[in-house]
Structure prediction request, 161 residues.
Amino acid sequence: MELLPRYSDCFFCGREGDGPHLRMSVDNDVIFSEFVLDSKFQGYARVAHAGIVTGVLDEAMWWAVFFDTHSFYFTTKMEIEILRPVYTGTQHKVPARVIEKDGRAVRVQASIRNADDKECARVLGTFKQGRGIDRAAFAKKLDFVDISPRLKQKLQSALED
Prediction:
């Protein structure tokens, strides 16, 4: 498993700011993060707000698409099921993977699982390719601290294309 860079301006994965500071990794084209949400993200009594749950899933799916395509895609549809509470202050993990590519659209699935490996939430997402993205500006805001030299080179080369 290899760590992915953080995007400095991102609420969910950026190192700074008030977000959950998710740390994404990749293993065999599956994006993965283990995380504990702070109580400031609760909607009710230790239960994470559904908007935060949705954001965590979206973040993992975005990285799955970016790592697979090396292109910029944007979320256009999310079909979410929340099956059980995602509690703040407890360990969770989110795997995400691309399941289908069709022209400009990419379909992705992700889930949040608790420490007992029970599925708390799952999503099917559709992403469409964006246009006019300044790849160089994006690359400048990637934080490569703790990233392997091999993966850093791979991602930097992909962003130069």
